[in-house]
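Title: Comparing notes on inverse folding

I've been comparing how different people in this forum approach sequence design from structure. To keep things fair, I'm posting one structure and asking everyone to reply with a full sequence. Here's the target:
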């Protein structure tokens, strides 16, 4: 897990480093740290997150190991499966 604020000291440096990591395939999912939710990088709900609450994952396995749950907006199938398994 990589915290958004750890990517650089300025918003520009953070965006540049994030772009590099995405292009290298080292980041494929984003998440909300306080809510313990992960989702796609292009999720409309995730784009409204505060940078200090945003984290990034290499893959879904990493997010699940850290006990994050799927986003209901961008991953409805995974969210439904998670919700059903929680009962």
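Reply #1:
Here's my take.
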């Amino acid at each position: 897990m990589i915290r958004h604020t750890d990517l650089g000291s300025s918003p520009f440096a953070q965006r540049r480093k994030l772009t590099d990591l995405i292009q290298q395939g080292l980041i494929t999912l984003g998440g909300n740290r306080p809510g313990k939710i992960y989702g796609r990088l292009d999720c409309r709900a995730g784009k409204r997150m505060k940078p200090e609450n945003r984290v990034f994952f290499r893959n879904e396995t990493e997010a699940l190991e850290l006990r994050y749950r799927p986003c209901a907006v961008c991953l409805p199938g995974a969210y439904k499966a998670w919700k059903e398994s929680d009962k």
